[in-house]
Each structure stands twice: as C-alpha cells, then as structure tokens.
Fold:
Amino acid sequence: MSSLPIVDLDMAPNVAAVIVAVYGLLIVASIFTWSLARRRPEKDYSELRARVRTWWVIVTLFAVAIALKPIFAICLLGFMSFLAFKEYITLIPTRRADHRVLFWAYLTIPIQYYWVADGWYGMFIIFIPVYAFLVLPARMVLIGETEGFIRAAGTLHWGLMTTVFSLSHTAFLLALPAAGNPIAGGDGLLLYLLLLTQLNDVAQYVWGKSFGRHKVVPKVSPKKTVEGLFGGIATTAVVAVIAAPFLTPLTRWEALVAGLLIGAAGFLGDISVSAVKRDLGIKDSGNILPGHGGILDRVDSLTFAAPLFFHFVYYLHY
Amino acid sequence: MARILRLLFWVLIGRPLVLVVLGLNVRNGSGLPKNGPAILVANHNSHIDTFVLISLFPLKLLGKLRPVAAADYFLSNRALAWFTLNIVNMIPIERAAKGKIDRNADPLEACVKALQAGEILLVFPEGTRGEAETLAKFKGGVARLKEQFPDMPVIPIYMHGLGRVMPKGEIALVPVVVDVFVGDPVPWSGNRADFTRAMEEAVIALKAQAPTRAWR
Structure:
C-alpha cells in the first residue's frame, strides 16, 4: 500500500445515499423529542434534546470529513483519539515524575495517524503494541522512580491501546485498497462501522429502557440489562445485513456475523470504560458533548468494535 | 498595533490552547463578573494559569483583563517583558522581599488606576507558583484594594489540574482537562487581615469540591 491522496472528492452514490438516510433519522429523532417535550411539559427532556442536537453536530462533522476524505477524515479521527486520550489521562492518577513520559505518549497520536495516511500497514499495526509499549516504560525507568511503576506503565498503555491504537483502525479503513470494496470503498466501510456502533448504543438503550428487567453486570453498570443487550445486538445484526450490500463487500452471512460482533464488542467496550470510571469514582468522562458526557463516553463502544470489525473485513476481503 | 496583535494572539493561540488542547470544565461560570471593576483571586501552579483565567471571559472583555504579576520575574528580559506587557496586558508589581523598595511609592498604584478605569484584575495572592494542589498563605494586596473599593466584587477561583499540565520547572505541555471552580464574592469583613483569611478560606472551600485524583 502506498501514500494516500490528500483529497479524493469522489464519493460513491451509496455512501451519499446512506448519509442522507442518517439525516432523515436525525430529523425523525428531533421531531419525536420535540413533540415528546410538548406533550408532557411536566417532564424534563432537556438532556435528551441536547443529546439529539449533539448528534446533528457529530453527523455533520463526519459527513464533511467523509466528503473530504482521506486526509481530512484521518485528521478528524486523530483528533477524536486525542480528545479521548486526554479525557483518559485527566481521569487516571499519574505520577509527577512521569510528566515527560506523558508528553511522549501524546506524541504517539500524530505518529500513529501518520502511518495511516502513509498507508503503511505493517508499522500501523505494531507501533503502539510494540514500540510505544517498550519505549514509554523504558523512558519511565530511566527517570528512576520505582514507586507505582507497574501501575503507571500499565494504565498509560491501556489508554494508548484503547483510545489511540484501537480507534485508529477506523481511519485505516480509509487506507484500504479500493479494489477490496468496489461498491463503496473505504469510506463505505467506515460509515458502516460508525453507523452500526452508534445505532447499537441507541438500540441497547431503547430496548433496555422499554423491556429491561434482568441486570447483566450490576456491579459495573447497573442500568445495563439482558433485554437491552440482546435486543440491541439483534437490531444491530438486522441493520448490518440490510446495509451491507450498499456499503461493504460482505455477504449476507458475513454481515450477520459482523453485526453480532459489533453489537457484542460495543457492549463490552461500553462497560469497560464504565469499569474504569467506577474504579476511579467518576460518573461522566467529561462534558464536551452536551447530553452525552465526554468523548470517551461516546467512543467507548468503538474502542472494542473498531479493531474487531477491521480485522474481520481485512481477513475476508483484503 | 499592540491591541490587534493581542486580539490575534488570543483568538489564534491563547484561547485554542486553553479551550481545545486542554479543555475547561467550568462550574458556576455564571458567577464570573460581567464587567469591571472586579478582582479574581486564584490559586497558582503554572504559567498556564493566566491563560486559563483570560479564556474564562468572552473576547469582548479582553481589553479589560489585567493579570497582576511580579515585575522582577516577568520584566527580566526584553522579549518576555514585551510579551507580558503587550499581549498578556499585565500589570507589573514590585515584590517587597528584595529590600530595595522605595517606601514612598505605592506598589499598588497601577492596580488602583486599573480598577478606577473599570478593569478586571486577575491576581494570584499566593505570590508564586507553589507545588501542585497545595495552597500557600495569601498575601495582603487584594485586601488593601478591597478597602479602597468596597463595592467591587472579589471572586475566588480554584483551578484544578494545571499542576499536571506544566508544573514549575517543566517546559513540555501535557494536555489535561482543567476543572475551574468559581465561588461567590467574598464579603468585606471589617479589616484587612480577616478579609485575606476569608479569601483564602473561600478558595480552600472550592478546592474541597475538586476531584481528589492528582499527582502521586
């Protein structure tokens, strides 16, 4: 694979059509929450409405990014990694002695996304798991503070793996050769992944709110229910099968597996970030997205779903 | 010219640095003064503190914001002096400890003039950047000013996280989301020593709201 062009304005008609459909969904959601707030003025729907408004901003950002692929989209996804990593660093306790190590850790973000823009798969796939994994603890050791060393090295690497390495798989979809997905290209796969992970979050929430009885992991996330989990995964799998012929090279059965994979991985990513916050005694990871909390709360499911979906497609079609 | 450069600096560098690279989580932001004269008193851990305080306000108040800082440190070389006087719009103060202060000159004169002109002073009453998340004893200058301007609000601020961004002695900037707690105006208590103590207690009370996660 070689270096990518800066801007490739050629958007597959299917990708454009799906983006229009997502805007259609947003209009429906806005009208629904607006009428809900009107019909029941005694209840407070401001958070729900803020959440829908934030969705408009997120969808528009990604629509523009996909239109200006690949470099602009890669930069936006890199910025998403930066915001998520920053929230993670803000949450975890760090050592005073590691100030410069944290600075180096931030530097891995532009470097990792540079490998993506360069289309260098071999480096992309080992840079954080091998080089950052060895170099950052080495830098810590040379500073010489041994107290809390394993905890500092471990928490830092967990953050880099989830918020930088895992999330950068979304961007590498754009660097895959066009021949692997003739109908919609890398942006079709990216859109498919983002659509399904976010839909899965919403579907699990709605199923859980409507029919939720039995708790799945009460200690980690008391609001998650078995009904929400399976209803959500089933919904995601159905949409995965329906959307696959428009956006991906996946066959019907492959799409079903992809949908189940994204649904289950999304759930696990979500509760893993919940576990981190619970461990540290925090509710939301931030306040940057009104109605959602922090970026980390929004991309938590993607941290698990992105690499699994990427390697599933990569193995089958590239 | 300096005004244009100042505006450009804060629009293109200062505010993006604070609002995007770091990120602010402001509690009770409506408690900030909408106009001068007023004084903000805040804890001090990092050079970025001044940047954060300035970024709390809308751009239209930029011309009224006057950080107060030590002349001996910030005017020590010409480039730094030009930057702090023109871009940061700082009021330099002579620190008393040097032993060669002219006893007849009032070190607070420039502050009094600024308050008379309806400006907002940004003050770090600890007098220096301390260790992260620990408060040093407050100095008495703000109390003298409050005595002269009894109706002027003195608003306590506690900033959490900046000790991790760029602690004393470090030049590498590590992005961390900063929590800013805005308190209620500290009422005049009749004498300067009590007022200084009340200010200090107000900042300590805000600190108690901050999350405990920190450097270890």
In short: Chain B has a mean pLDDT of 86. Chain B has eight helices and seven strands. Strands of chain B lie at 24-27, 38-42, 65-70, 91-93, 120-123, 154-160, 178-182.
